[in-house]
Amino acid sequence: MAKVFERTKGLTDKPFHYCPGCTHGIIHRLVAEVLEELDVLGKAIGVAPVGCSVFAYDYFNCDMHEAAHGRAPAVATGIKRVHPDSVVFTYQGDGDLASIGTAEIIHAAHRGEKITTIFVNNAIYGMTGGQMAPTTLVGQKATTAPYGRDEKHAGRPLKVAEMLATIHGAKFVERVSVHNPANIRKAKKAIKKAFEVQLAGEGFGIVEVLSTCPTNWGLTPVEALKWLEENMIPYYPLGNFRTPEEVK
Amino acid sequence: MAKILMKGNEAIGAAAIKAGCKYFFGYPITPQNELPEYMSRELPKVGGVFLQAESEVAAINMVYGAAGAGARVMTSSSSPGIALKQEGISYIAGAELPCVIVNIVRGGPGLGGIQPAQSDYYQSTRGGGNGDYRTVVYAPATLQETVDLVMEAFDVADQYRIPVMVVGDGMIGQMMEPVEFKEPKKRNLPPKDWATTGTKGQRKPNIINSLFIDPKELEDHVLRLEEKYKVIKQNEVRYETYNLEDADVVVVAYGTTSRVVKNAIAKCEAEGLRVGLIRPITLWPFPDEAFEKISDKTKGILTVEMSTGQMIDDVKIAINGRKPVYFYGRTGGMVPEPDAIVAEIKKIAGGEK
Amino acid sequence: MEERVIMAGFGGQGVMSMGQLLTYAGMIEGKNVSWLPSYGPEMRGGTANCNVIVSDKPVGSPIVTEATAAIVMNRPSLDKFESFVVKDGNLLINSSLIDKKAERDDINAYYIPANEIAVELGNGKVANMVMLGAYLELTKAVKVESVLEALKKVFGKTKAHLIPLNEKALERGAELIRK
């Protein structure tokens, strides 16, 4: 009988600690599969963030480095400059990347740092307990926005992909979602391209992945996927913002 | 090898490159700018990388990444910039990585000034960032000693997997003195088999990490660090002493201040006073043992610093109540003058204090 | 022997390089030396000064508070540093730009029209060398040959043609003292 599914070598045997219905697990798997398919696990060095995916260093089956909150792109820069032939990626959430780490991500892109960033946007601080993120939607409730995000008070949510696409060194920028199988397939394609951009030495690549947080959104996993589709995608349109000719 | 006349900041860079440092991540701040400028000019010539980061915070986290990747790496800054780097220094200490951090100290608090100061003693010797950790701290007094210690700092960092700080001030950074680059004593350095180099499919993944969510695991980790610090205390203490045997007064001073103190001591001797000196070269580990050599006839200890009195805490711990400890200092970028120190010494010698 | 010298003037008068040359020459002769500049915002167009120590013993503090000599190239430098000179010490005043006399009578003051001599030699920039020549003649802190050797190293090949001019400037400064 033909094998139609098997574990990816890109992940360790360690069971994920993520909440039921959280899409981090899917995104981890996509990254791991891409690393395996590109045959770069042996030269991959990942940088884990602070946030829900802080333990990513236990899950990816390659060398890993745990960074301080928001600093993953700086740590990745240090690694990539020492080992220019390695494949370096950061895996960061929206609090990590879009709040405390804005300087680091913008300047990694600005330098055209040859690294790949997987940016998981679930519109909330997950690990610390559902506080408002820069990506929290207007009107969305959070533990530090109990009346819903007020645009006059907290501004409108930050569109990271659009912002980074204005930077010359950011050679690959795409926003994807993982709320259904079709989109998961597209997400994997984008992640693969982002790594190919790095392998081609083109510059910085980022994939923003819209993700769910049933626990802190106060929804069931199925409701959460629907909420993502109906609320996040209209504000955070999916699509490619930049691709270099070589990878198109 | 012939001596070369070099500016302090550049001599530090030259010493680092001679010690095999290939990577430098920094951010401009006075009075240390000649050091990153030197590295930006010289590192590419030896196949290394200089990178000007977007901030001190980013720079130290680049050091964190490069150190984890197994490189000999350095950063430098001055006081407010070093304050920003404390986040990364704490992570580097926690993840047990080697690196060298140079602080060309300026006056504070806040933006402070740019003239010589020693007001970062606490910041340097008490860890500086969060958590139970130490960094080895060298405080050279001359440019020759500066290059010797910078070269040794990389070995010490590698041997113990620990961040090492070299603390100077604007005088060290800006002055010129002849220097000679000498190989430090040979150490047996362990292989960096823990580094993130890519598994090449030949070993289990290496993980650089300072997170231990289980309190027992974290306690074990911290206690292991403490054991390491004990070994460093045994092996790496450095200090200079002068005339402790029959001194009426013993002065304690480090870095450039110790040079002013030496002038003051010479003046006292010309007047027949017997004055000793303890000059810590490592601020951490602090040379407690030097204080055991102080003679019974010594009337008191005078600590001289370019601060309002920070090292004096360690002097009091080391002397443990056996002798009275007095303080004289200037701060904010003012440098103590020999005559003022002489006056303080005389007060102690004459029983006025 | 220990010479502790303060050299001061406007930025651009070459006080820093004058100090470095003396330091370099001292090192060539195997003496203990240090050179300490003022640094910071005042360097950008304002007054500049450096402290040089040339000694048979190891150098203690690189800061000169009791100067065996001061070389002042402009009026603010005279006002600031006259009091730093020790009794019987030397104060060399650039009389081309300073019309004031030394106030103290317990030091040896010398008035050297350094800019005028430099212009006579065809290059106003060597006023510092005239002052240095006078200083060396007075103190014999280092040999003139050592300064010339230091100049060769500092100038390299591209500026080697300037050495005879500098040598002349040093000599004219020395002559003024010999008179």
UniProtKB/TrEMBL annotation, chain A:
GO terms for molecular function: oxidoreductase activity, acting on the aldehyde or oxo group of donors, iron-sulfur protein as acceptor; thiamine pyrophosphate binding. The keyword Zinc does not apply. Keywords: Oxidoreductase. The keyword Phosphoprotein does not apply. Residues 58-208 form the Thiamine pyrophosphate enzyme TPP-binding domain. InterPro entries: 2-oxoacid:Fd_oxidoreductase (IPR051457), THDP-binding (IPR029061), TPP_enzyme_TPP-bd (IPR011766). One of its GO terms (biological process) is cellular respiration. This is 2-oxoglutarate ferredoxin oxidoreductase subunit beta. It comes from Caloranaerobacter azorensis DSM 13643.
Automatic annotation (TrEMBL), chain B:
Residues 247-340 form the Pyruvate:ferredoxin oxidoreductase core domain. Keywords: Oxidoreductase. Coiled coil: none annotated. SUPFAM superfamilies: Thiamin diphosphate-binding fold (THDP-binding), TK C-terminal domain-like. One of its GO terms (molecular function) is 3-methyl-2-oxobutanoate dehydrogenase (ferredoxin) activity. Its EC number is 1.2.7.7. The keyword Oxidoreductase applies. It holds the Pfam family POR_N. It is an enzyme of class 1 (oxidoreductase). Residues 15-222 form the Pyruvate flavodoxin/ferredoxin oxidoreductase pyrimidine binding domain. InterPro entries: 2-oxoacid_oxidoreductase, PFOR_II, Pyrv_Fd/Flavodoxin_OxRdtase_N, THDP-binding, Transketo_C/PFOR_II. PANTHER family: SUBUNIT OF PYRUVATE:FLAVODOXIN OXIDOREDUCTASE, SUBUNIT OF PYRUVATE:FLAVODOXIN OXIDOREDUCTASE-RELATED. This is 2-ketoisovalerate ferredoxin oxidoreductase.
Automatic annotation (TrEMBL), chain C:
The lineage of its organism: Bacteria, Bacillati, Bacillota, Tissierellia, Tissierellales. It comes from the Bacteria. This is 2-oxoacid:ferredoxin oxidoreductase subunit gamma. Residues 11-175 form the Pyruvate/ketoisovalerate oxidoreductase catalytic domain. Gene3D superfamilies: Pyruvate-ferredoxin oxidoreductase, PFOR, domain III. InterPro entries: 2-oxoglutarate_synth_KorC, PorC_KorC, Pyrv/ketoisovalerate_OxRed_cat, Pyrv_flavodox_OxRed_cen. Keywords: Oxidoreductase. GO terms for molecular function: oxidoreductase activity, acting on the aldehyde or oxo group of donors, iron-sulfur protein as acceptor.
